[in-house]
Automatic annotation (TrEMBL):
Pfam families: Abhydrolase_1 (PF00561), Abhydrolase_4 (PF08386). Transmembrane segments: none annotated. Residues 210-255 form the Peptidase S33 tripeptidyl aminopeptidase-like C-terminal domain. Keywords: Hydrolase. Residues 67-162 form the AB hydrolase-1 domain. It comes from Pseudomonas xionganensis. InterPro entries: AB_hydrolase_1 (IPR000073), AB_hydrolase_fold (IPR029058), Carboxylesterase_BioH (IPR050228), Pept_S33_TAP-like_C (IPR013595). PANTHER family: HYDROLASE ALPHA/BETA FOLD FAMILY, PEROXISOMAL MEMBRANE PROTEIN LPX1. This is Alpha/beta fold hydrolase. GO terms for molecular function: hydrolase activity.
Length: 279
Protein backbone atom coordinates (compact mmCIF):
# COMPACT_ATOMS: atom_id res chain seq x y z
CA UNK A 1 0.00 0.00 0.00
CA UNK A 2 1.44 3.38 -1.01
CA UNK A 3 1.74 6.25 1.45
CA UNK A 4 -0.92 8.34 -0.35
CA UNK A 5 -3.31 5.38 -0.39
CA UNK A 6 -2.93 5.14 3.38
CA UNK A 7 -3.41 8.92 3.79
CA UNK A 8 -6.57 8.93 1.68
CA UNK A 9 -7.98 5.97 3.59
CA UNK A 10 -7.23 7.66 6.92
CA UNK A 11 -8.80 10.94 5.75
CA UNK A 12 -11.88 9.13 4.47
CA UNK A 13 -12.41 7.50 7.86
CA UNK A 14 -11.66 10.58 9.98
CA UNK A 15 -13.63 12.83 7.65
CA UNK A 16 -16.88 11.03 8.44
CA UNK A 17 -16.31 11.26 12.21
CA UNK A 18 -14.73 14.74 12.49
CA UNK A 19 -15.17 16.58 9.17
CA UNK A 20 -14.51 20.07 10.59
CA UNK A 21 -11.29 19.05 12.35
CA UNK A 22 -9.98 17.31 9.24
CA UNK A 23 -10.95 20.26 7.03
CA UNK A 24 -9.03 22.62 9.32
CA UNK A 25 -5.96 20.43 9.16
CA UNK A 26 -6.17 20.25 5.36
CA UNK A 27 -6.68 24.02 5.11
CA UNK A 28 -3.46 24.63 7.03
CA UNK A 29 -1.57 22.09 4.91
CA UNK A 30 -2.94 23.63 1.71
CA UNK A 31 -1.79 27.14 2.66
CA UNK A 32 1.57 26.36 4.28
CA UNK A 33 4.35 26.06 1.68
CA UNK A 34 7.38 23.85 2.16
CA UNK A 35 10.84 25.33 1.68
CA UNK A 36 12.05 25.06 -1.91
CA UNK A 37 15.79 25.53 -2.43
CA UNK A 38 17.27 26.50 -5.82
CA UNK A 39 18.71 23.71 -7.95
CA UNK A 40 22.33 23.74 -9.12
CA UNK A 41 21.35 24.98 -12.59
CA UNK A 42 19.68 28.04 -11.02
CA UNK A 43 22.71 29.15 -8.99
CA UNK A 44 24.63 31.04 -11.74
CA UNK A 45 21.62 33.25 -12.46
CA UNK A 46 21.01 33.72 -8.74
CA UNK A 47 24.59 34.95 -8.34
CA UNK A 48 24.00 37.57 -11.05
CA UNK A 49 20.87 38.98 -9.41
CA UNK A 50 20.46 42.08 -7.29
CA UNK A 51 18.49 41.29 -4.13
CA UNK A 52 16.00 44.06 -3.29
CA UNK A 53 13.52 44.50 -0.43
CA UNK A 54 10.29 46.32 -1.18
CA UNK A 55 8.48 48.67 1.16
CA UNK A 56 6.21 46.08 2.78
CA UNK A 57 9.02 43.57 3.32
CA UNK A 58 8.67 41.55 0.13
CA UNK A 59 11.94 40.23 -1.21
CA UNK A 60 12.72 40.18 -4.92
CA UNK A 61 15.53 39.61 -7.41
CA UNK A 62 16.35 42.04 -10.20
CA UNK A 63 18.29 41.68 -13.43
CA UNK A 64 18.95 43.95 -16.41
CA UNK A 65 17.67 47.38 -17.36
CA UNK A 66 14.93 48.71 -19.61
CA UNK A 67 11.12 48.34 -19.57
CA UNK A 68 10.08 46.40 -16.48
CA UNK A 69 8.73 42.85 -16.51
CA UNK A 70 7.40 41.49 -13.21
CA UNK A 71 7.50 37.73 -12.53
CA UNK A 72 5.62 35.65 -9.97
CA UNK A 73 6.47 31.99 -9.39
CA UNK A 74 3.99 29.30 -8.42
CA UNK A 75 3.26 27.48 -5.17
CA UNK A 76 6.49 26.37 -3.48
CA UNK A 77 8.34 27.88 -6.42
CA UNK A 78 11.30 30.23 -6.84
CA UNK A 79 12.18 33.22 -9.04
CA UNK A 80 15.11 31.40 -10.61
CA UNK A 81 12.83 28.67 -12.00
CA UNK A 82 12.29 31.24 -14.78
CA UNK A 83 16.05 31.16 -15.55
CA UNK A 84 15.85 30.67 -19.32
CA UNK A 85 13.09 33.24 -19.72
CA UNK A 86 14.92 35.76 -17.53
CA UNK A 87 18.05 35.44 -19.65
CA UNK A 88 16.01 35.91 -22.83
CA UNK A 89 14.29 39.00 -21.44
CA UNK A 90 17.49 40.62 -20.21
CA UNK A 91 19.22 39.90 -23.52
CA UNK A 92 16.29 41.56 -25.32
CA UNK A 93 16.67 44.73 -23.25
CA UNK A 94 14.18 44.34 -20.41
CA UNK A 95 14.55 44.81 -16.67
CA UNK A 96 13.24 41.76 -14.82
CA UNK A 97 11.96 41.82 -11.24
CA UNK A 98 11.02 38.41 -9.82
CA UNK A 99 9.27 38.24 -6.46
CA UNK A 100 9.68 35.78 -3.65
CA UNK A 101 5.98 35.23 -3.00
CA UNK A 102 4.68 35.70 0.55
CA UNK A 103 5.83 32.85 2.82
CA UNK A 104 8.33 31.85 0.11
CA UNK A 105 12.08 32.43 -0.06
CA UNK A 106 13.07 35.54 1.89
CA UNK A 107 9.63 37.15 1.89
CA UNK A 108 7.77 37.22 5.23
CA UNK A 109 4.85 35.04 6.23
CA UNK A 110 4.06 31.45 7.14
CA UNK A 111 0.95 30.90 5.05
CA UNK A 112 -0.11 32.13 1.62
CA UNK A 113 -2.86 31.85 -0.94
CA UNK A 114 -3.75 33.24 -4.36
CA UNK A 115 -5.25 36.43 -2.88
CA UNK A 116 -2.15 37.11 -0.79
CA UNK A 117 0.02 36.57 -3.88
CA UNK A 118 -2.17 39.00 -5.84
CA UNK A 119 -1.80 41.67 -3.15
CA UNK A 120 1.96 41.14 -3.22
CA UNK A 121 1.97 41.88 -6.94
CA UNK A 122 0.00 45.07 -6.31
CA UNK A 123 2.45 46.14 -3.61
CA UNK A 124 5.42 45.45 -5.86
CA UNK A 125 3.89 47.29 -8.82
CA UNK A 126 3.34 50.37 -6.67
CA UNK A 127 7.12 50.69 -6.26
CA UNK A 128 8.16 49.83 -9.81
CA UNK A 129 8.08 51.73 -13.11
CA UNK A 130 5.07 51.08 -15.39
CA UNK A 131 4.96 47.37 -16.17
CA UNK A 132 5.56 46.16 -19.69
CA UNK A 133 4.31 42.74 -18.64
CA UNK A 134 3.45 40.54 -15.70
CA UNK A 135 4.34 36.86 -16.07
CA UNK A 136 3.09 34.19 -13.70
CA UNK A 137 3.52 30.44 -13.43
CA UNK A 138 0.82 28.16 -11.97
CA UNK A 139 -0.61 29.87 -8.87
CA UNK A 140 1.51 32.88 -9.79
CA UNK A 141 -0.45 33.10 -13.04
CA UNK A 142 -3.78 32.89 -11.21
CA UNK A 143 -2.64 35.60 -8.79
CA UNK A 144 -1.47 37.86 -11.63
CA UNK A 145 -4.86 37.64 -13.34
CA UNK A 146 -6.64 38.26 -10.05
CA UNK A 147 -4.39 41.24 -9.31
CA UNK A 148 -5.54 42.91 -12.53
CA UNK A 149 -9.09 42.79 -11.15
CA UNK A 150 -7.84 44.44 -7.95
CA UNK A 151 -6.19 47.36 -9.73
CA UNK A 152 -2.89 46.09 -11.11
CA UNK A 153 -1.98 47.88 -14.34
CA UNK A 154 0.19 46.19 -16.96
CA UNK A 155 0.56 46.49 -20.71
CA UNK A 156 0.37 42.71 -21.13
CA UNK A 157 0.20 39.49 -19.14
CA UNK A 158 1.49 35.93 -19.57
CA UNK A 159 -0.09 32.90 -17.89
CA UNK A 160 2.07 29.77 -17.80
CA UNK A 161 0.39 26.53 -16.64
CA UNK A 162 -2.19 28.55 -14.74
CA UNK A 163 -5.69 27.50 -13.63
CA UNK A 164 -8.74 29.37 -14.86
CA UNK A 165 -10.88 28.62 -11.77
CA UNK A 166 -9.64 28.41 -8.18
CA UNK A 167 -12.69 26.44 -7.04
CA UNK A 168 -11.61 23.63 -9.36
CA UNK A 169 -8.16 23.65 -7.74
CA UNK A 170 -9.68 23.38 -4.25
CA UNK A 171 -12.03 20.56 -5.18
CA UNK A 172 -9.23 18.67 -6.93
CA UNK A 173 -7.05 18.95 -3.80
CA UNK A 174 -9.89 17.72 -1.59
CA UNK A 175 -10.46 14.70 -3.83
CA UNK A 176 -6.74 13.95 -4.05
CA UNK A 177 -6.49 13.94 -0.24
CA UNK A 178 -9.50 11.63 0.07
CA UNK A 179 -11.80 14.04 1.90
CA UNK A 180 -15.45 12.94 2.12
CA UNK A 181 -18.00 15.37 0.68
CA UNK A 182 -18.85 17.13 3.96
CA UNK A 183 -15.21 17.59 4.95
CA UNK A 184 -14.35 18.76 1.42
CA UNK A 185 -17.10 21.38 1.42
CA UNK A 186 -15.95 22.68 4.81
CA UNK A 187 -12.35 22.77 3.57
CA UNK A 188 -13.42 25.06 0.72
CA UNK A 189 -15.28 27.33 3.14
CA UNK A 190 -12.26 27.57 5.44
CA UNK A 191 -9.99 28.49 2.52
CA UNK A 192 -12.48 31.16 1.44
CA UNK A 193 -12.63 32.60 4.96
CA UNK A 194 -8.84 32.71 5.25
CA UNK A 195 -8.39 34.26 1.80
CA UNK A 196 -11.24 36.72 2.39
CA UNK A 197 -12.83 36.07 -0.97
CA UNK A 198 -15.37 33.51 -2.28
CA UNK A 199 -13.72 30.93 -4.50
CA UNK A 200 -16.49 31.37 -7.07
CA UNK A 201 -15.27 34.91 -7.76
CA UNK A 202 -11.80 33.65 -8.65
CA UNK A 203 -12.81 32.58 -12.13
CA UNK A 204 -11.31 34.09 -15.28
CA UNK A 205 -14.71 33.77 -16.98
CA UNK A 206 -15.91 36.62 -14.73
CA UNK A 207 -12.83 38.84 -15.15
CA UNK A 208 -12.50 41.99 -17.24
CA UNK A 209 -9.33 41.33 -19.23
CA UNK A 210 -8.73 44.38 -21.42
CA UNK A 211 -5.05 43.88 -22.23
CA UNK A 212 -3.19 41.54 -24.58
CA UNK A 213 -1.98 38.28 -23.19
CA UNK A 214 -0.30 34.96 -23.81
CA UNK A 215 -1.44 31.63 -22.37
CA UNK A 216 1.14 28.82 -22.39
CA UNK A 217 0.23 25.30 -21.32
CA UNK A 218 1.51 21.78 -21.94
CA UNK A 219 -0.98 19.08 -22.86
CA UNK A 220 0.78 16.62 -20.52
CA UNK A 221 0.60 18.90 -17.45
CA UNK A 222 -0.26 16.54 -14.55
CA UNK A 223 -1.02 19.34 -12.08
CA UNK A 224 -3.23 21.81 -13.98
CA UNK A 225 -5.13 20.13 -16.85
CA UNK A 226 -4.73 21.63 -20.33
CA UNK A 227 -8.47 22.31 -20.47
CA UNK A 228 -7.90 25.16 -18.03
CA UNK A 229 -5.86 26.96 -20.70
CA UNK A 230 -8.62 26.53 -23.25
CA UNK A 231 -11.21 27.92 -20.83
CA UNK A 232 -8.95 30.88 -20.09
CA UNK A 233 -8.37 31.56 -23.78
CA UNK A 234 -12.12 31.46 -24.46
CA UNK A 235 -12.78 34.05 -21.72
CA UNK A 236 -9.85 36.32 -22.65
CA UNK A 237 -10.57 37.86 -26.02
CA UNK A 238 -7.17 39.46 -26.63
CA UNK A 239 -5.12 36.37 -25.80
CA UNK A 240 -2.95 33.98 -27.78
CA UNK A 241 -2.72 30.32 -26.79
CA UNK A 242 0.53 28.43 -27.14
CA UNK A 243 -0.20 24.71 -26.88
CA UNK A 244 2.82 22.53 -26.14
CA UNK A 245 2.46 18.77 -26.49
CA UNK A 246 5.10 18.15 -23.81
CA UNK A 247 6.52 20.12 -20.91
CA UNK A 248 4.59 18.98 -17.87
CA UNK A 249 3.98 21.57 -15.17
CA UNK A 250 7.55 22.73 -14.55
CA UNK A 251 9.66 21.86 -17.60
CA UNK A 252 7.50 24.14 -19.73
CA UNK A 253 9.34 27.10 -18.16
CA UNK A 254 12.54 26.12 -19.96
CA UNK A 255 10.95 25.66 -23.40
CA UNK A 256 12.51 28.03 -26.00
CA UNK A 257 9.12 28.31 -27.72
CA UNK A 258 7.75 29.89 -24.55
CA UNK A 259 10.63 32.38 -24.46
CA UNK A 260 10.14 33.28 -28.11
CA UNK A 261 6.38 33.72 -27.72
CA UNK A 262 6.83 36.01 -24.70
CA UNK A 263 9.28 38.22 -26.62
CA UNK A 264 6.89 38.33 -29.58
CA UNK A 265 4.09 39.47 -27.29
CA UNK A 266 6.20 42.22 -25.74
CA UNK A 267 7.34 43.45 -29.15
CA UNK A 268 3.73 43.55 -30.40
CA UNK A 269 2.21 45.36 -27.40
CA UNK A 270 -0.25 47.01 -27.63
CA UNK A 271 -1.18 45.53 -31.01
CA UNK A 272 -1.17 41.87 -29.87
CA UNK A 273 -3.98 40.01 -31.58
CA UNK A 274 -5.84 36.86 -30.53
CA UNK A 275 -5.15 33.50 -32.08
CA UNK A 276 -3.59 30.14 -31.42
CA UNK A 277 0.12 29.55 -31.86
CA UNK A 278 1.19 26.16 -33.17
CA UNK A 279 3.85 24.32 -31.23
Amino acid sequence: MSNMTWVRGFNAAVGHVAPHALAGKMRRAFMTPRESLPRDWELPLLAQAERITLRFGLSALRWGSGPTVLLMHGWEGRPTQFAGLIRALVHAGYAVVALDGPAHGRSPGREANVVVFARALLEAASELPPLRAVIGHSMGAASALLATQMGLRTQSLVSIAGPSRILTVLRRFARYMGLPARAGAHFVRLVEEKAGMPAGRLDVAHYQLDFPGLIVHAVDDPVVPYGEAEAMHKAWFDSRLLRLEEGGHQRVLADPRLHQAVLQLLEAVPQASPGVLAS
